[in-house]
Amino acid sequence: MNKIEHIGIAVKNLDASCELYERLLGAVCYKKENVESEAVNTAFFKTGGNKIELLAATSAGSAIAKFLDKKGEGIHHIAFDVDDILAEMERLKAEGFNLLNEQPKKGADNKLICFVHPKDTNGVLIELCQDIKNI
Ligand code: CMX
């Protein structure tokens, strides 16, 4: 795996949190995107070479809605950049990790993504991310 690609933060109100993170980071949100397949609205920030993704649920049964109900707002996942997501998925499977999707899915910000179950990774949801333009 390569560097941390982004940190995902679950929020209740995307517009209010966007305004808050703009004030916090002194940076403007560079992209807002709805990812229908994940039932989320996202907003992205870049600061000092780091990337933050804010995530708000668009449906009651979604992963983010369940997370907010159970744990409240906060860090939802850490995403790592990978060069070859299929190879990395095979490697992790061989290492005994439980992947949450069999095939890479299309995620926000032009990425192919795959998640590792947080029960296998000390309670932290890990995301693999490959830039689609690197395929
Ligand atoms: N980080 C850490 N733990 C988490 C978690 C998270 N993000 N989400 C759920 N959990 C915990 C739950 O609290 C629960 O813990 P306990 O058993 O101790 O109570 C455990 O994981 C299993 O939870 P569950 O209720 O059995 O399962 P869920 O239906 O809540 O599903 C998960 C959990 C991780 C499998 C599911 O959320 C998932 O498949 N996530 C991947 C997809 C995703 O998160 N999409 C949204 C983001 C999309 C994007 O980045 O664009």
DSSP summary: helix tally: 3
Number of domains: 1
Say how many strands there are: 8
Amino-to-carboxy terminus distance = 16 Å
**Beta strand %:** 35-45%
Into which percent range does the helicity of residues fall?
10-25%
Can you walk me through this structure?
GO terms for molecular function: metal ion binding; methylmalonyl-CoA epimerase activity. Keywords: Isomerase, Metal-binding. Belongs to the methylmalonyl-CoA epimerase family. Pfam families: Glyoxalase_4. Its EC number is 5.1.99.1. By secondary structure, this protein is of the alpha+beta class. The chain has a single domain, classed as 2,3-Dihydroxybiphenyl 1,2-Dioxygenase, domain 1. The chain is built from 3 helices and 8 strands. Strands 2-3-4-1-5-8-7-6 form an 8-stranded mixed β-sheet. It is globular and about 45 Å long. The chain binds carboxymethyldethia coenzyme *A. Carboxymethyldethia coenzyme *A binds at residues 8, 35, 38, 40, 42, 55, 63-64, 66-67, 70, 76-77, 100, 107-108, 115, 117-118, 123, 125.
Outline the fold blueprint.
Layout: E1 4-10, H1 14-25, E2 31-35, E3 40-47, E4 50-57, H2 63-71, E5 74-81, H3 85-94, E6 105-107, E7 111-116, E8 126-131
Parallel strand pairs: 1-4, 5-8
Antiparallel strand pairs: 1-5, 2-3, 3-4, 6-7, 7-8
The structure holds carboxymethyldethia coenzyme *A.
Carboxymethyldethia coenzyme *A (CMX) binds next to strand 3, helix 2 and strand 5.
InterPro entries: Glyas_Bleomycin-R_OHBP_Dase, MeMalonyl-CoA_epimerase, MMCE/EMCE_epimerase, VOC_core
Family: Belongs to the methylmalonyl-CoA epimerase family.
GO molecular function: metal ion binding; methylmalonyl-CoA epimerase activity
